[in-house]
Amino acid sequence: MPARLFTPNYPLAERMRKGWACLFFAVIAGSLIGCSSPPPLRLPTENAASRLTLEQAKDVTVYAIGLVGTPYRWGGNTPESGFDCSGLIAHVYQKSAHLKTPRTVAELKEWGVPISTNSIRSGDLIVFSKGNESTHAGIYVGDGRFVHAPSTGGRVRLDRFTSSYWSNYKIAFNRP
Fold it and tell me: Is 148 a catalytic residue?
């Protein structure tokens, strides 16, 4: 509020009217800020429950490794047509664990329970982000490695998430 509202020569009615207007706009602004607040933070846990049994997680891992060498194809979701990263994940979880996954990397980032790097096990999801945008995903298979469909012209392959290339990304792990 302008400082002149508090001077004795400024009419009381005018000070009250402008004071109420300022209060009204402050309440409205506070309400709007509350509406645009970000979603709650998903913190990693140590021992997350899973929709997958240990046997299913093993099946996911074995099946994913068996698809290494399959060609990459944007939008692909079968071994015959090729895979993109989310198509590979959807296919593997459906075929080996009868579990339906989201189809986009952005949706996969929110799927399952976030887990810490110390708690990952084979069959968990690994999601890579640049800034706030999730850009790539794969299936963790153990020993610091994951299976993924990397890019146009590429093939499904095994990589280490600790490699210099992937260290440029923010990495999150989710347990389905």
Answer: yes
